């Protein structure tokens, strides 16, 4: 039961919850705040505060309830910054996760840091424990961080003002655009590490950037033994002077520590460094002064009676590196503090004053030496540059700058503020010159400085030696030892109140200091200098050479009767005449001065520098202030004042203005004789305030005007002077315009003075007196202004521009006296008086004036004034909007106006009576047309288009129905209305299509506003479209077409596609847009389309493509609404034209393009088919049948296009792209007959084939294009692949390219017809014998290649794709693939597995069931198929001497039919002779096209199954053997020098197999009355088998005869043995009742057509040739007799070098059995589990029987190499039975499923560590070993689960090796290009891919030495070892044993037998399959043993996936019988 929560409870989501997963569930994301309202057991009911409109339930465990204290602060979640940070964290988290998965390390690291920072700041903001200032800064930091991160990640940028997000609900379009621009500019150079704006106040533009240098002394590493002073100062190297005061750090003799340093203020801040100072070559100068004895000695321990300041050391530090980037835009306050170590240097004391200068300049470094006693580093300082206002920095760096003293700059800062007060006089003692005075040594002079007042009293504490020390009354200089010309260069600051400057003077007392400690300092003289001159000015800056007066008694200074002030103080005073007179008079008349004697050879040089805002050094300024004392000098004074510096004037600005206005007019207000000059001085002073350095003094002037100005009658004179100055424009020359312009620039302050004067006058007179005189003055003045403005002269342009820039301030001031309407009229008249075509500068100034007016109060505050100004402004906008120079000013003006009216519209009701409503109407009618034209022009040039578009949209935003009605009524004529609509449509269409070029894609808010305004405008524009261009009967297709284009462009623009956005972004966009605008626009399109009725034919087919784009938008509602438009188009075109060909053609064209652009999906295909079919069926139209066909065709095209698009990317999808391309080109050719599209996809397929090196297929693809052309001379236009040329030239070019491809693909038979056709064309039509010669040589080369070049025969594979997971073009379909060169089923399966990585490879070859066909997965079934050759003349049996290579091509090429054999048993199985029941299930497959073709695979279009009887299969087997013998005999007869070993081995194998009783099994099975009685229909096959056996004996006789002629002497013993065996064979045949070969021939002739009723079509590789028994007696029986089937092992052992049959198939494709062998009982579960070929097994058994029954005679070689030598066999194909002993060869192992690459041959298998020693076969082999082994193997519970329990044989997970190269020419090809010598090395086959889990007996290999020593002259791999026979036999002894050693061992894991089967011991022998009567084993036993021995495995098709391990543990391995040790001896290596 649900219960309410008593109090408001807030919880935090601690886990995510999908609301859809729970009924009535509430979606939660991590960190969401939820308000809990009810509870029920473990469930809460509440609201997510992130989406307060949704309520739902959620588990209690998913939230953490906040405590009460936290609930009190939950209001912080309502903070928009917190909410925004939460949403951003969620969005960034998803991106971070994606970047982490994609291994984007840099972005992942950066984003993680940004997320952590944002989380920390968000937490701080939510705590709410900071001050308001800190919270404000924190919000700014968070928002700036978010904006920077979103910009970096390419996310949406929100518009914000400060930290507040703004949107269209508060801002207009233009204002929103400006906010976006400002935000983007702010974030342009901002990074995540520097996101805060510069400190220094709310308005950083108040004053230029000011820098401050923080300094702290961290370490002083010198031990002086006495106290020391360390002085720091900034020094300007360029000007050789200090730029700052000194900062002093005291160091005690005990040393410097951080504690002492803090106590003594070891840190300071050098203040007020401007940008100009930072550009100087500044250095930090460090001076160390020792305080103590005059001469320091460590031995002296007496207490000090006198303390002297002695120079000790100096150091300098360049500051250029630190100050280099100070003027940049970066946030310098974030720069870290840096430490700098400084070395201290010493030099001679005579140059002490120049130490720092010379050390800085590096001019005399030899004079300096490192200070001794420095510990590691002399002085260590830390520096940090700060930027901003000093007050703000103290607040920000409160801990850093707390109690830190300030060291001021020597001078004023860049900006002097009115409140700045400073009164400092810097006094520098530079140098002195003193006489020795009769002493032998120089003096030690100390200077004492003190300031005395006019009464001779010292002024207390007014001298400062450094910035951080207290003032002193007396200051002692340093003492330079024994220096009569000392250089001190010591600076002292004098700080006095202003009133004490008058009469005060400085006195310098000079004392000699003795080295004796107890001796007092002796006074030797003094100098003095007054601080002010007699005229009241402070002494001028610069050097002053002071006179030195002798005095030895200090008391004389105190004698009131003695005064030295009457004496001259400087040499400059003496030089003046007045000084001379004064000196003479004083010297004679003043006895009091006679006691001070001056030595002319002694002097002291000092310097002054005044930095005061109260004192002046300028006498002219003082004369102005005291002009009344000298009225006759007013003119001179005023002229001198005009040349004064600004610093002097602004100090006394108020006093100066008072003096000027007193001189300007008399008490009656009348002008004085000096009024004009005073006005010029006033204008000159006011113009100084425009300088940035003094611009802040305008506030001082304003304060003066308000509080101190009292000239009530001055306005008349000021207005009169301004008018007179303006009138001078007409008479002034060019050089005299500057005073006039200066007057215009001072208008603001001048008219403030005028207005204040008029107000003062108004207060003094009666209130009812009118202002007519003032109005007349003003009107007269503006008449003068208008006259000047109307002049059109280049000379006056600059003056007119200055007037326009400053006139608005005049009007604004006048509006305080006059009405705003009157002031507006004055301004409007001035603007209108300007020329219509003014100078560009005047046009700019005029629009700037208009913009200022729009921003000003005249426009915004007074409706009357606005009404007057609006007409003028509109006229100017119309005039200048089209001018690029002033377009930005126009857009800004119009934008501000529309923002103003939008604010008014939000405050007032939208009624016609409102003033703003009429103003908007006026603006629209006046400017909208020009604005549209300006936007259209800007869109073409892409310049300044953003502000223009924003202005246009801001105008359209304010228009409502009434405004549009008024606009349409103004444009009532069709022509102007049409032009207007066309222009507006064009502008909006360009905006919709290129919106992201106008406004960046990140401005999602801006795009939402734009689309909203466009949608509303389009809705309004449909009214005149229908009213004027449809209902009136005057239809304009151009206008309607533009409308539809615009609507489609709007609907399909990228900014509206919600599918590309995240879920949160989609929700936000839908809310902002009020729904999906695409749906709204779609319904509007549908409404307008339905409205035009029969006019629809005008838009067919032009609008098919646009409407198709609309329907492809992935919005179901929109698709269902707009798809019926196509039905209307079909119906409309059919009614008007009788067909819909144009709609069909256009739809096909556009679909091909649009689907390729990733538009459309399967849902669209289904909707298209369903909706249009329903429309066609529901409407009774005449074209219903054609319509259904058309819809079906388009649906199929969509299916193919979607399939093609899905596989467009990825190398693994290349084959899929080929299939899709093939489907498309067939569609365009067969279904719609579109030649252009057909050719387009032909070349796409061609390019795909080239990329895959499928040259034959590429050539055949090109032939599709060539077949479309003839040899005419018609000119063809250029396309994407050919230039413009004649048709025969293009066809020739394609032919030559195809011929080259055929050559590279070794398909010369297809290139020869092209050569013939070209040769005929060259010879009979073109008569170009040069080309004819070339093509004939190429044709001849092709013929030669056919006979000499090696061509591997391709394998063919049947591939079935089953399951719903495949694309439609593959789903549940069967294909035949043509393999690559040397590609077998393992490599092919791996290749398909790569293409379909998720597919499951079916291990059985049975047809899949419905479960697999309907499953959602992917299942692939693969097996080999045998090609069946088509009828061709090369197979004519009458051809004599026919080259086999010619026929071999047609056996495996140009084939469409393929066969697949599967053995089955019918009826009871005879274990002694299974041939009786062994049937073959043969499946015939027919492909869609022959292979090779334009694809390497084609779909199977026909499939049927037939069964082959056992006797018929026996015929095929014997025929296959006969055929092979005939081929070998033909080859050796034609080439007697060919290696005879393959021929010998094959004869031996056949004859021995027959001796073993193979014929006996056939005799027992088929040649008996019981068989013929039970199978009368097989009589023909029995007779054929009988004839084939007889024919085989005849072939053997002829073969042995040929063999006897060709056999060398060493082979003759074997030949004799074969002759004996053949004799025995014939004898046995005779005993069995077989006729002799001659008799058999006669028998065949007598029983020809009558005995054999019909011809038999061969099922072997020569399928297609009819077989007739009558052909046996042809002239060449060896060439006309069928051969038996050839097994895989036999083919693997065929040696091409030895001249074997020229079959180049890479695997056993010539076998008649392809598929699975039935093993065991009929119908057993494992009947499909083994993949092998019966013919292969039979031939292996035959070979084994031959080896077991007859002793194998070795074929001796002439080489003396011992037979025991072991070799690694080459990978070339071996001849069948190429050796007398049958070992496992790599080739045979490869054919049995093993890999033969060198890696696998050297795998680390325990078997590699054994040595197999070959011994003579002198003992009998056990007959039961194989049978026992076979039965034991078959008795296992499950052959799949039989695994090796040995740990070392655990099957590893193996990865497939790479596929063999297909483009490079192998050594195999090269060695057989033109024949091969017997001594040449064997060819190397390409590397084969081992099947998974296969075990490779790599130790069973032979070395080249062994081969050379034996009979292996042809270098073939040895065959497999023989298995022991079942019957006893004797073996010929071996003279030399052979030892087999393993190959190199690799480091990989050991391979294991396939499917976990145990490896069969190599000693296991093969028995005769036809001699089963003498043993106990059956054929199945033999087969199983053979399969195990040869590595035959389950049909896994090379699948790389391992099977799932069984649930139960594996059973133990079966125990195998031990091998016969007499045959093999196994030794451990």
Taking the sheet with the most strands, its summary is:
6 strands, antiparallel, barrel
The N- to C-terminal Cα distance equals 83 Å
Structural class: alpha+beta
Radius of gyration: 56 Å
Strand content: 5-15%
Cross-sheet strand order for the largest sheet? 31-32-37-36-35-34
Gross geometry: elongated
Average predicted local confidence, pLDDT:
75
Oligomer: single chain
Would you identify the regions where 5 or more consecutive residues have pLDDT less than 50? Answer: 69-76, 194-207, 327-334, 582-589, 1639-2029
> How many extended strands?
44
* Number of distinct helices: 68
Fraction of residues in H or I helices: 40-55%
Which helices and strands appear, and what pairs or packs with what?
Blueprint: E1 3-13, E2 33-40, E3 43-48, E4 55-59, E5 63-65, H1 68-71, H2 80-101, H3 105-127, H4 132-153, E6 160-161, E7 164-165, H5 173-187, E8 211-222, E9 227-236, E10 241-242, E11 247-251, H6 258-263, E12 267-273, H7 275-278, E13 282-292, E14 308-318, H8 320-323, E15 338-342, E16 345-346, H9 355-361, E17 369-370, E18 374-387, H10 390-396, E19 406-407, E20 423-433, E21 445-452, E22 463-464, E23 474-476, E24 487-494, E25 505-512, E26 522-530, E27 542-550, H11 571-575, H12 577-589, E28 597-612, H13 619-625, H14 634-641, H15 646-651, H16 653-664, H17 675-688, H18 698-707, H19 714-727, H20 737-745, H21 747-764, H22 772-790, H23 797-814, H24 820-832, H25 840-855, H26 857-861, H27 863-880, H28 887-907, H29 915-941, H30 945-958, H31 961-970, H32 974-993, H33 995-998, H34 1004-1029, H35 1037-1051, H36 1063-1073, H37 1077-1091, H38 1104-1112, H39 1116-1122, H40 1124-1137, H41 1141-1156, H42 1162-1178, H43 1184-1206, H44 1214-1231, H45 1235-1251, H46 1255-1266, E29 1275-1276, E30 1285-1286, H47 1287-1304, H48 1308-1326, H49 1329-1348, E31 1356-1362, ...
Parallel strand pairs: 12-19, 33-34
Antiparallel strand pairs: 1-2, 1-5, 2-3, 3-4, 6-7, 8-12, 8-18, 9-10, 9-11, 9-13, 13-14, 15-18, 16-17, 20-24, 20-28, 21-23, 21-25, 22-24, 25-26, 27-28, 29-30, 31-32, 31-34, 32-37, 34-35, 35-36, 36-37, 38-39, 40-41, 42-43, 42-44
